[in-house]
Amino acid sequence: xxxxxxxxxxxxxxxxxxxxSTCCMSHAIKSLISGFGxxxxxxxxxxxxxxxxxxxxxxxxxxxxxxxxxFIGQQLVGGANQVMSLQxxxxxxxxxxxxxAIWI
Length: 104
Description:
Layout: H1 2-10, E1 15-19, H2 24-35, E2 41-44, H3 51-60, E3 69-72, E4 75-78, H4 80-88, H5 92-98
């Protein structure tokens, strides 16, 4: 049920980040992706009434730790480590381009 809600939260959004407003890694990842010129949709789980359920669903999808959970082009990329390794391998920009999050 929650997986369906998460899929609906991803529809037509090239970049979605599930975050916690107090999480410094989430902040770093949001800054990194915004630095490409992308405008990610951010859901702060600690500010959503159903944040706890969403977090449990993210665990079910394999997100550990649960935040930041980054989806690009409706696909789960992973957390901070996965996003950082994409960046280190120079693949984050092209992934964002393919998803339509950035144009350059």
